[in-house]
Amino acid sequence: MSIDEGTAAKVAKLARIKVDPADLPVLAQEFNTILGFIEQLNEVDVEGVEPMVSVTPMRLKRREDVVTDGDQQGKVLSNAPDAREGFFAVPKVVE
């Protein structure tokens, strides 16, 4: 598959990218280079290869799922500009 200048202009318009008409030949060549790389990837035999989520076989560290009180109300409210009775105080916005 080959991308010409007209197709490159259409892609730029769809991507909402302003491209100077003088730069369209260079853009078309870059698209053709990218498509060449994709064609090379299509030639790779992946029969029997399982899909990967990551290149490193690591599992995410998980914490124990325990419901707690948090016990940090004072820390949370310490930076509030106005806190009353253990809650954030905000200006009234509805009459």
Characterization of the model:
With 95 residues, the chain is mainly alpha-helical. The chain has a domain at 5-42. The protein is 36% helix and 4% strand. It is built from three helices and two strands. It has helices at residues 5-14, 24-42, 73-77, and strands spanning 83-84, 87-88. A two-stranded antiparallel ribbon has the order 1-2. It is flat and about 70 Å long. The mean pLDDT is 90. It is an enzyme of class 6 (ligase). It comes from Primorskyibacter flagellatus. Belongs to the GatC family. Heterotrimer of A, B and C subunits.
Major sheet description: 2 strands, antiparallel
Number of helices: 3
Number of strands: 2
Specify Rg, calculated over alpha carbons: 28 Å
Q: N- to C-terminal separation? A: 64 Å
GO biological process, one term: glutaminyl-tRNAGln biosynthesis via transamidation
Family: Belongs to the GatC family.
Pfam family, one: GatC
Protein name: Aspartyl/glutamyl-tRNA(Asn/Gln) amidotransferase subunit C
